[in-house]
Amino acid sequence: MTDYPADGPIPVDALPDDLAAAPGLTVLDVRDQGEWDLGHAPGAVHLPLPDLPVRFEEIDLDDQVYVICRGGGRSEQAVRYLETVGIEAAVVDGGMIAWASVGRPVVRPDGSEGTV
Questions:
Q1: Any bridge partners for residue 29, and if so which?
Q2: Residue 83 and residue 8: Cα distance in Å, rounded?
Q3: CB–CB of 66/99 below 8 Å?
Q4: Which terminus of the chain has a smaller tally of CB atoms within 10 A, N or C?
Q5: What confidence tens digit (pLDDT) does each residue in 50-62 have?
Q6: What element of type H or E holds 65?
Q7: So which residues are the catalytic ones?
Q8: Is 29 within 8 Å of 41 (Cβ atoms)?
Q9: Distance CA 54, CA 24 (A)
């Protein structure tokens, strides 16, 4: 894993497969509840984009924060918002579509195999 990219999003292959086992790293999934329930990256933290302004304080400021959504649009909005409240973050390039397309695990809340 690398630090924040200086010039843009981080590619999915730069993140570990097991996010929960990566100390100092938070992957923030900003998709809605229905998308999350269909499938998400194991170890990601769910914080839907509309909830971000009232829940951003739940983010560990000591972690490197990477934001993921389905394809990238909401992640960019989230990163821009987080910057306004002093949280440095980067977009995961291609979102969950890219995550799943390179064979990364996708799970449902019960741990079973999920979809994007």
A1: 46, 68
A2: 14
A3: no
A4: N
A5: 999 999 999 998 9
A6: strand 64-68
A7: 69
A8: yes
A9: 23
State in Å, rounded, how far the first CA of the chain is from the last one: 23
Tokens 């999003």 — which residue? 9
Element (H, E) at 82: helix 73-84
Is the pLDDT at 2 greater than 90? The verdict is: no
Q: What is the pLDDT of residues 25-76, one digit of tens each?
A: 999 999 999 999 999 999 999 999 999 999 999 999 899 999 999 998 999 9
Residue 64 β-bridge partners: 25
Q: How far apart are CA 107 and CA 42, in angstroms?
A: 6
90: alpha, beta or left, given left = phi > 0 and alpha = psi -120 to 50?
beta
How big is the chain by its Cα radius of gyration, in Å? 13
Amino acid at 28: L
**Predicted TM-score (pTM) of this structure:** 0.92
Q: CA nearest 66: which of 4, 20, 23?
A: 4
d(CA 111, CA 89) in angstroms, rounded, equals 27
